[in-house]
Recover the amino acids of this structure.
């Protein structure tokens, strides 16, 4: 990770996943508010629209973690000897996010798993990441320590939000907080890369007090950008949901804990569907059993 590209890659991972979560959380919430009041429930992952039986999100986590581990391992040797122990820390971080992906995959497949294990492993991955970053800064410059400590604070907020979401499965705010801080973590990874390893332009003076004050200001701008992005996407998703027809077969495919039968569907004026194709229904049914 000690390069510009080494910060761009994890930043892209967190940035894209946060956008995916944001869209699905807001769409599920607004859909529930309009069509099935008080039926909203949080989940750590979301089904792919093109194939709801495929655990795309879990597979992407596993594949991304494997590529990260392989990249850090291949660059950790010098003259045939392992010398870059920072790479070992990064490998450990990738491992725990990959572990979370494996648990997500098992949960999606409806294997017998302890309740809320997907949330626990997600929070554990954030906790390990923050812990290793916190003790990753010995001997660094003041600015280097500052930008990474901002990252540690953000990671800690991700962990707390994940645990809060686990404990409040029907409250959308913890899910939005998890999305917000994951988005912030992704964009700040980019910013750290530009500050410490600028691909163009002059390097920052990492011991200059004025420039360190500018860094703190930039961090708050990232927070404002994350909030503006969430507000803008929320507005667009709300408009989309409001423009949906009043009667739709998707009633039974979003945020419902109640098993639906063809008789109930016809009675309510909806089109019956095969429950086995509704991954959201399956996830939410399992969540309701745990509460």
């Amino acid at each position: 990770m000690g390069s510009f590209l080494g910060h761009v890659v994890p930043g892209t991972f967190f940035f894209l996943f946060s956008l995916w979560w944001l869209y699905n959380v807001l769409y599920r919430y607004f859909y529930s508010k309009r069509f099935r009041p008080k039926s909203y429930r949080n989940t750590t992952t979301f089904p792919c629209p093109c194939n709801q039986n495929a655990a795309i999100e879990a597979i992407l986590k596993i594949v991304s973690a494997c590529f990260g581990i392989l990249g850090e391992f291949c660059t950790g040797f010098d003259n045939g000897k392992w010398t870059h122990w920072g790479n070992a820390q990064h490998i450990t971080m990738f491992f725990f996010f990959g572990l979370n992906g494996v648990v997500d995959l098992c949960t999606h497949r409806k294997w017998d798993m302890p309740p809320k294990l997907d949330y626990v492993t997600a929070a554990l991955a954030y906790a390990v990441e923050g812990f290793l970053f916190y003790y990753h800064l010995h001997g660094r410059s003041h600015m280097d320590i500052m930008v990474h400590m901002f990252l540690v604070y953000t990671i800690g907020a991700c962990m707390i939000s994940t645990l809060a979401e686990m404990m409040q499965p029907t409250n959308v705010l913890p899910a939005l907080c998890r999305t917000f801080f994951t988005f912030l973590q992704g964009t700040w990874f980019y910013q750290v890369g530009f500050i410490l390893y600028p691909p163009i332009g002059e390097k920052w003076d990492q011991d200059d007090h004025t420039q360190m004050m500018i860094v703190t200001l930039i961090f708050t701008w990232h927070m404002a950008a994350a909030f503006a992005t969430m507000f803008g996407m929320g507005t667009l998703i709300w408009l989309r949901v409001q423009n949906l027809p009043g009667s739709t077969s998707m009633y039974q495919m979003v945020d419902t804990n109640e098993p639906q039968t063809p008789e109930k569907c016809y009675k309510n004026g909806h089109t019956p569907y095969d429950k086995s194709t509704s991954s959201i229904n399956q996830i939410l049914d399992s969540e309701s059993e745990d509460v």
